[in-house]
Each structure stands twice: as C-alpha cells, then as structure tokens.
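Late entry, written up from scratch paper. The run itself happened at the end of the previous shift, but nothing got recorded in the book at the time, so transcribing now.
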Amino acid sequence: NAKVVCEIANATSPLLYCKHDGSLNDGFELVTHPMTLDFHHKNMPWQDILNKLKQMGYYSHQASTCGLHCHINRTAFGEDEAEQDEVIARILYFFEKHWEELLKFSRRTKSQLDRWAARYGYKDNPQEILKTAKGGYGRYTCLNLCNENTIEFRIFRGTLKYNTLAATLQLTSQICNVASIMSDEEIR
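Output as recorded:
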C-alpha cells in the first residue's frame, strides 16, 4: 500500500518524501528535495528505491496517468524575472521546435500529452511562445509556468527503470543548459 511505500521511501533517503496526488485515482507521488543532476547520480539511492517499488508490485510506465515531472528553480536561469524569462522562452522554443523528437523521448502518446502536458504551439520567435505561455494555460502543459519558484517539465511518462530516469534528468538538464548559454538567434 502507499503508506508502506512512503515509509520505505522516507527511511531510504531523507531527500525523498511521498505525498498525495489529487490527479491519481490510486497511487502517490514521490518528491525529492531540490538537488543537482550530479547529486541525483551520485547520492540518491534511485536503484534501491526503484527496485523496492518493483518488488512491491508497483508500476509506473504502464499506468496511463503516471508522469515524471522535473522542477527547475527559476533562479538557475538568472537573477531577475527578465533574465529568467529569456531562458524560459528559449526552453519553450526548443520544446516546440523539437516536439516530435520530444514526444518519442517522453514515452507518452499524443493524447496523454494533450491531457497532461499540452504544447503551446510553434512560433518562430521564442519570446512570442513565452507570451502565449503566459496567457493563462494552467499547469497541464509541457512546461508548467504556474509555480512562482520553479518551472516544471511535465512531458515525461513515469518510470521505474533507473536508466530511463537518469536519461530524463540528463535531457532536462541539457535543455536548460543550452537555453541558458545560447541566444535566441543561436537556438533557432
């Protein structure tokens, strides 16, 4: 049961906790405290946690509602909102420009993405996509901008496979790095 899993998760790592997810009929949400990609790889006992969940009969990828969401602190993109928005606009542009490739990597179907992680629509200018995204789409978008402290990558399907989890974290980190380093012109 979910209570037992939460106790195991909390005992396994003080950096991980469970919480109720209102969008799930039967299940729970595993949440980590903020950490770097390097910390995820070197210090989080993901193999043990994922193996224990599988042994207990839980599944993730096979569920139609289970997602793997990655939150990135907005301060990683700049000191003020204007700097942060520049980078976020390029992340949105990257999503829209490479939507078909990201769809494959996400391991979700188009209908699942439409429901849980909808796209904003391609525009040739990153700032125009950001303007659209700030137009009140809500949180069920590919890149949820509703949280004042983080942006949330929502396109990925859940997994209990360590290699898939690691690849998802790496891709998310790389998209953020590229958007932080490149200009609008370069990312186009």
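The beta strands are 16-19, 29-32, 67-73, 143-144, 150-157.
(Scratch paper discarded after transcription.)
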